[in-house]
Structures are given as C-alpha cells and as structure tokens.
Amino acid sequence: MSDQEIDLSDLPNVVAGALTPLDWDALASPDDDRHPPRILLLYGSLRDESYSRKVCEEGARVLRALGCETKLFAPSGLPLPDDGVDADHPKVAELRELALWSEGMVWSTPERHGAMTGIMKAQIDWIPLSAMGGIRPTQGKTLALCQVSGGSQSFNSVNQMRILGRWMRMLTIPNQSSVAMAWKEFDGDRMKPSSYYNRLVDVMEELARFTVMTRGRADSLVDRYSERVETLEDVHKRVSS
C-alpha cells in the first residue's frame, strides 16, 4: 500500500502523504493472512458531550484509514460488577464477545478526582482474566491509552490504565494521548487540528503497527515458564481465584 492509497476524505486535519500506511511485509508474521486488524474502543463517560467518546471516534477514523476494522462499545446500561448480575446480562455478554473478537483495544477515559472514571473501570472489570472457551480475552492483545481532562494536562488516568493493561497481560504500546481542556479541542464531534490531535494520530498509527506485528506472535510473546510447569488444573485454579 502506498501513501496515495490511504483515504483521507474523513480526516481533513491529516496532512496528505504524512500518514504512513501499514508496511505488511515488514510487520506481519509469515503466516499472517493480512485481514484488517480488529480494534475495540472503550470510553469512560456517558455524557452527551463525552470527550472520551469523541476521542475514540476520532481515533477510529484514523484506524480505519489505516485499514483496521473498529468497533465501539457503548457502556450505557452496563451493570456494576458483583451487583447481582452475571455474564449472561446482555451488555456484559456484548462486551465480552467484543473483547474476544478484538486483536487490540483503545481505552479512553476522562480524569475524575485524579483517576479514571468508575464507568471505565467497570468495563475493564467485566473482562475476565480467566479463559473463556479456552481463550483469555486480553492476553497478548495490544492496547493504546487515552485520557481527557477538563483542566490542565494530566497523566494519572493513563498511568493507572497502563498498570491494568500489564495486569491483564496486554501489550500496551509506548505512546499515549492526554488531551488537556478537552472542551476547547473539539468543534462539534470533530477534533480540531493541534498538537493534541497529532499525538492522537501518532497513537493510532502506532497501535495499528503493533497489532499487525504482534498478533501472529502473541502466543510466543506471552508464553511463560512458570505456567508451563503447572498442570492445567493448577493454572485454572490460580487464574480463576
């Protein structure tokens, strides 16, 4: 794919020729079938003017221009974990199915009281660490982190989520996005051109590359000696505890 083949019709703030297409020959594993990278985007606010959602939507446009398939999960109606519901709840089942479908994720949250929102954390908590149908929903998948703030720039939420991503054995990319005074950075639903916008494009471009580079190699990358010497029953008991 050449630069000219990237469709920028929905990305008016991206400079033509500057967005680098995926180099499949350099990135993909030998047996990769080169299907579009599957990216799930989660956001942590239910407000009509949710800037964390708008960041996800803007990021998804970049990902699609790079050839990814994207899905956003709407958290409205998702119950609190341990609140008398189980994985059969429609919103929980939807989230878990999307987690299994995905090869990479974007987590985007407002910073509230110096931390990610409860809405964001509830989504993460509903994604189990133990296997579903023999597959762990997050292990070896890529992760990109974003946060929005109403005031000055902060990194509390992305730092928190980075810890969670490590705990969930995800491959969290080095780059991240933190948008200060987010209410000034959008014109309607679209993000204005700025250094914050450029960083968001950076993050999505890096996520797409890391997803292609690791998805065929994830099993090898997260394979652990300590687990190879355990019995399957021991692993199940430990992971499920």
Short description:
The chain is an alpha/beta fold and 241 residues long.
Oligomeric form of this entry? single chain
Q: Supply Rg.
A: 18 Å
CATH homologous superfamily - what is it? Flavodoxin domain
Mean pLDDT: 91
Sequence of strands across the biggest β-sheet = 2-1-3-4-5
Largest sheet: 5 strands, parallel
Overview of this structure, please?
It is a single chain. This protein is of the alpha/beta class and 241 residues long. The chain has one domain (33-240): Rossmann fold (3-Layer(aba) Sandwich), CATH 3.40.50. 37% of the residues lie in helices and 16% in strands. The longest helix is centred in the last third of the chain and has 21 residues, at 195-215. It is globular, with a radius of gyration of 18 Å. 37% of the residues are buried. The model has no long low-confidence stretch (mean pLDDT 91).
Write a concise keyword list for the protein shown above:
241 residues; alpha/beta; Rossmann fold; 5-stranded parallel sheet; 9 helices
Which helices and strands, and how do they pair?
Blueprint: H1 24-27, E1 38-43, H2 51-65, E2 69-73, H3 90-101, E3 104-110, H4 118-126, E4 142-148, H5 156-167, E5 171-179, E6 186-187, E7 190-191, H6 195-215, H7 218-221, H8 225-228, H9 232-240
Parallel strand pairs: 1-2, 1-3, 3-4, 4-5
Antiparallel strand pairs: 6-7
Helix pairs in contact: 2-6
